[in-house]
Amino acid sequence: MSIDLSRRNFLRGAAAGAVTAVAAPVAEATPFGPREPKQLPPKAVGMLYDSTLCVGCKACVSACKQANGMPVEQPAHLAAWGEGTWDMAEDISGHTLNVIRVYQNGTMEQKDREKDGYAFVKRHCLHCVDPSCISVCPVSAMRKDPETGIVSHNPDACIGCRYCVYGCPFNVPQYQFDETFGQIAKCQFCNHLQKQGKLPACCDVCPTGASLFGLVTDLQAEAERRLAAKPGEMYTFARGKLGGDRPSHEAPLGEYQPHLYGEKESGGTQVRYLTGVPHEKLGLPALPDHSFAAVSEGMQHTLYKGMIAPLALLGGLVFLARRGVKSHHDEDPSS
Ligand code: SF4
Ligand code: SF4
Ligand code: SF4
């Protein structure tokens, strides 16, 4: 069982909306504002997902399950009759860390076309540069590696409050509601494999290089190269790891949307998306360039710096006390 998506979206929207609604006017009128943005760690690793190369084979989904010890998932109405294929997760969940989703429009004749077309998109944690999930966690169970930038979750420290679920602007962390001792689940960039010198499982098995691993700075340069090249011209695509020794393959370059998703969204992430269809149509949300963490922490720091909050409270109490004394005097003119 999982929380209804619309309810979850409402809760997160309400929380984010409250922060933004309070922060925006306050930031213009007073010294309140986002704190300094966080910077990409020096050896940040990441992923370039090129939707135009993705053939929707879902090898990345099953490899992710295998690498992370996750069970198969099927919609209840199919699982009950044994009619599902081996794994049919509709979205990421407490037991599914990545999924391939499909965009469909009209006659669906052509791949990577918005009208009468279809396209694939991969969904998992983007390993934000300034993660909101870390900012809202009260016990530091979410952590960002200072070198690689991988955002991981420590189940031993986690108290199950699920603030990270509501705080993430990409709706990534999921709670295992169906387990007696449920945990938060999210992609941890196959940290355990990387420590053994291996690739993240999804990039390792991807046959086309649609999911490509590498240093974020290198992946950014590669994405910019693809954006600058002419659509349709033959291009050499790496597979597995950018700069690795795996044989590359040649294919005509796709026609990309000019927006490199993940570069700036929510303060920037360590995943980049190149797509042929506008990112909103693929379920990649439009987000501001600063993270909610930067806004809310900026406000907190300003409030508590110089004891503004306690002084404001004291001022309020003095005001109320004076008003009480005044009304007492008004009632008793002889006093
Ligand atoms: S995508 Fe969500 S879970 Fe992943 S690092 Fe960013 S805020 Fe955290
Ligand atoms: S990096 Fe690992 S955990 Fe994350 S989506 Fe890929 S296979 Fe799954
Ligand atoms: S393995 Fe590669 S091509 Fe296949 S669905 Fe995943 S990203 Fe797409």
Automatic annotation (TrEMBL):
<keyword id="KW-0411">Iron-sulfur</keyword>
<dbReference type="Pfam" id="PF13247">
    <property type="entry name" value="Fer4_11"/>
</dbReference>
<feature type="domain" description="4Fe-4S ferredoxin-type">
    <location>
        <begin position="116"/>
        <end position="147"/>
    </location>
</feature>
<keyword id="KW-0677">Repeat</keyword>
<keyword id="KW-0004">4Fe-4S</keyword>
<dbReference type="GO" id="GO:0030313">
    <property type="term" value="C:cell envelope"/>
</dbReference>
<feature type="domain" description="4Fe-4S ferredoxin-type">
    <location>
        <begin position="149"/>
        <end position="178"/>
    </location>
</feature>
<keyword id="KW-0479">Metal-binding</keyword>
<keyword id="KW-0408">Iron</keyword>
<dbReference type="InterPro" id="IPR017900">
    <property type="entry name" value="4Fe4S_Fe_S_CS"/>
</dbReference>
<keyword id="KW-0732">Signal</keyword>
<dbReference type="InterPro" id="IPR017896">
    <property type="entry name" value="4Fe4S_Fe-S-bd"/>
</dbReference>
<dbReference type="InterPro" id="IPR006311">
    <property type="entry name" value="TAT_signal"/>
</dbReference>
<feature type="domain" description="4Fe-4S ferredoxin-type">
    <location>
        <begin position="45"/>
        <end position="75"/>
    </location>
</feature>
<protein>
    <submittedName>
        <fullName>Hydrogenase 2 4Fe-4S ferredoxin-type component</fullName>
    </submittedName>
</protein>
<dbReference type="InterPro" id="IPR051555">
    <property type="entry name" value="FDH_Electron_Transfer_Unit"/>
</dbReference>
<dbReference type="GO" id="GO:0046872">
    <property type="term" value="F:metal ion binding"/>
</dbReference>
<dbReference type="InterPro" id="IPR019546">
    <property type="entry name" value="TAT_signal_bac_arc"/>
</dbReference>
<dbReference type="GO" id="GO:0051539">
    <property type="term" value="F:4 iron, 4 sulfur cluster binding"/>
</dbReference>
